[in-house]
Specification:
Blueprint: E1 2-3, E2 14-28, H1 31-43, H2 48-71, E3 76-87, E4 93-105
Parallel strand pairs: 1-3
Antiparallel strand pairs: 2-4, 3-4
Length: about 110
Amino acid sequence: MIMTTTPTVEGRSIRTYLGIVSSQTIIGANFFKDILGGLRDVFGGRSGTYERVLEEAKDYALAELSQKAAAIGADAVVGIDLDYETIGANGSMLMVSTSGTAVKLS
């Protein structure tokens, strides 16, 4: 499955637009990650723990987007948009939403 944030796939033409596909992933950061992240906030620097959680959430959301596109016969998803939000009490959950246009290529 070709997945891109661009509206086209270089060297290929879009034969059919199959529609918008979207997915959402919600991941909670556990207590120990919150403590470690809080220490990073106090002392400065990057939080590798939270970066890994962000990457994991993005990967899950894109995998689901790809599965949904494949289920309707797409060869690619173009124009992908990724949005990140914190939700829940004190922003304890991370939501990654993805959307794009499922297409058949020539």
